[in-house]
Amino acid sequence: MELPTYAYFEGEIVPYREAKVSILVHALNYGTAAFGGLRGYWNEGDEQLYLFRAEDHFQRLLNSAKILTMEFDETPADLIHITKELLQKEGYHQDVYIRPLVYKAEEGIGVRLHDIKAELAISALPFARYVANDTDAHVTISSWRRIDDNMIPARGKIAGAYANSAFIKSDAVRSGFDEALVLTSDGHISEGSAENVFLVRDGVLVTPPITENILEGITRRTVLQIADEILGIETRERRVDRTEIYVCDELFLTGTAAQITAVTQVDHRLIGSGKMGPITKRLRETFDDVVRGRVQSYSSWLTIVY
Ligand code: PMP
User: Fold this and answer.
1) Which of 104, 126, 148 is the last residue before a domain boundary?
2) Across-strand partners of 123?
3) Residues 106-156 pLDDT 10s
4) 79, 96, 126 - which closes a domain
5) Which residues of the chain have pLDDT under 50?
6) Residue 48, domain extent
7) What are the beta bridge partners of residue 299?
């Protein structure tokens, strides 16, 4: 993976190699950090880098910080400003992934959330595909369960909670799958290891509601909106049983990294015909047009970098 040249660290842009923390820093020991992940899409024709829904991503980051009792003076607009400055300095002319991080930065021993100074860091690196097999992914239902809102809030994008995602992902990949879906403690479909999930049944686009211990995905929100407004597809947020996944017509995962990843097999059962379905295909094309600035009516979702 190509690493950045610069990072925003302790209030300024510094060489990436100088953006370092101590081994006793609270967040590293106790997982008391939260992160974001947004993309910048390069548009060759416009010679422009577009950040997708940056305001929403930074608002979610600040909400995560709030859950972890961190206080920052910066607004989402301030964070967009810093990110633009960082990207201009990097000078990327390709798709990028931006990783903002808020973390409990003091060194010492003691598990708690309160009275620990927090810091904010941002870095950005070149990035293309996340799920290698994004048109034909094979997934399994994980034997792990999703963390509950009353354990580690999933809507918080809290670093420590990603140990749960890592168990889910690695066990799936080492068993030969591309990804896994994970169930809530009471056995309903929650989401993927780092993606939300959608299924199509009888022409209706269905996704679990935000009360199913999912991360409130910004791609999820985007797909719900463009399915309704551009493609005129009926959408529904409701609980999903495990075996609905086996009998649905189409299935896909959404996330900033995964974008819209078509799933064609679950636990060795074919989804639909075993090929990417027509609704998934149309959503992927429309999504790509939107994020690269080719749909005028959604241009308010984009931030111009250069
Ligand atoms: N669920 C989890 C657990 C995630 O880590 C992510 C990636 N951020 C998502 C869903 C998708 O969220 P988004 O579309 O905002 O990237």
Assistant:
1) 126
2) 99
3) 999 999 999 999 999 999 999 877 777 899 999 999 999 999 999 999 999
4) 126
5) none
6) 6-126
7) none
